[in-house]
User: Fold these one by one.
Assistant:
Number 1:
Amino acid sequence: MTETQPTLKSLAATIAQSAEAITVYLNANNIPAPSFAEDSPFDYPKTPEILGTLFQLIDALSDLQHLILGASDGINFSPIFESHDSEILDVLNQFDFWNAVPLGGSASYSEIARKTTLPEPLVRRVLRHAFLSKLFAEASPGQVVHTAKTAYVAKTPRTRSWIALNLEQIRPATVYLAKSLREYSAGKNSHSQEPLESAFAIADLDRTGRPVDFWTFLKNDPDGKPKGYRANRFAEAMQAISASSSIKPDEIVKLGFDWNSLGEATVVDLGGSRGHDAIAQAKHFPKLKYIVQDLPEVEEAFNSNLPKELAHRVSFQPHDFFQPQNIQADVYFMKVVLHDWPDKYAAQIVNNLLPYLKKGSRLVLCEGVQPESYDVHGNAIIPLFVRRLLSSMDLQMLVGANCLERRLTDWKDLLAQVDKKLEIRNVASFPGAVLSIINIGYNT
Ligand SMILES: C[S@@+](CC[C@H](N)C(=O)[O-])C[C@H]1O[C@@H](n2cnc3c(N)ncnc32)[C@H](O)[C@@H]1O
């Protein structure tokens, strides 16, 4: 790496300059600046004009914090801070603190205790830690109010499912990553390709006494919960995270492929969940018909999500993508599906489409394409924040099912394993976005 070592002064100067540039931009465009208060805008605008500056600011802040903490405090405090920050967010979520404090009002500790069913002294301890992360605030002694972050969860309830996915399902599994690596990957040239050997599977969250892969776990509803509970919550989590990225996946899908060039056409959205992508796209492209294929458990959520006016163009078909495809479509679309599967299984999913691709259809993926982090001179080419997000997604895949976020070369290798005639025609990427559109054709 050729980067010179940053100093307190150089990082502070970057912070001052970027903060100034962002403030000037907001003022010039009459955009209110986010604050910690409940009525704050949820985000800074993620426009191309200031996205780079926002990343510069956040990256410098992160480096500054590491530098100030130094090696010993940095190493010693991070395990305790990170562990309890996650645990407190989990408690707020599981005991629905979000609705125990009224939006636009305040609640006393005893009122919160009543609504969450927790003893008041515990509520005080939980909130004392939460306040430090700008999760709720004590506006006046004994009165708790929402902050921007907690109001966001209260106003976008699907976010609760995203938090639950990460903190109730993935977090306990992360504890088993080292065990999974030790048992199935250590001493080999590549990591295990078996979802049943992943950290999630061996964590066996339901205590069944055997490894359980993530998708089977989702099908097993906990006692006392309605049918499809876990599958629904997972679908909600996917919808929540789709809606919150800086560059909305809807936009990426809309702009990353020339859908209008298809004319009247059928798109199969494999693993399309409750249809949120198909529904959003159907609104933009009135000539396209969408068939969402997913596991039968998701059908009910799809039906409740589908606007009546789109019912003639967007439909659901229960379909297991490990079985041969049964619909001739113009485009087979998959969004963040193949990243869930190690190559061995991802290849089977694509292989099941081959008979139809040969007839001239397209395979369009909306997936992460892990970029190189450094150029040939060793200089960082993508922001630290984006690298952190990409590598967290990659590890989420490793923990969840022994799969991965692929680089372009990994995508090419995967397709070559299925059929050498499959060719990536184009990859459309968008600055600041973690997902790209991979447009794949079949050479006859
Ligand atoms: C990571 S989610 C992506 C959902 C959606 N495409 C999105 O971007 O929000 C993966 C989807 O694959 C579905 N899935 C898992 N195993 C499947 C299978 N064997 N056949 C069909 N769909 C499956 C899940 O139900 C889930 O909806």
Number 2:
Amino acid sequence: MTDQSLLSVGLRCRCPRCGEGHLFKGFITLKPECEACGLDYGFADPADGPAFFIMMTMAFPVTAFGIWLELAYDPPFWVHVVLTLPLLLLACVPVIRPLKGLFIASQYRNKAGEGRLAVPASSRAS
Ligand SMILES: [Zn+2]
């Protein structure tokens, strides 16, 4: 197993350990494990992380554009249906998958997981 580039495997939606297996079986549904190296994807839980970043970087500016368009030109409703809505979908949907892949690769690389209570070394059973 070679050390895979975080950006390379994440944006290509590949297994963060081997870089060969696919992460998703649908659009953003995670496979249970890598078909190439058997890595269990149970560790992967990016939760709302990708959605949050897409919302902050893509959805808000496009929504602001739609509001500006409405306030500046007062167009009929169909203008928003044929311009603002497709623009919003084009800005947000294509980046969901690679961003989720990047988050999962980052979780794997940084061994990120849920927080646990630390147990002092002196109280551990020996
Ligand atoms: Zn793999």
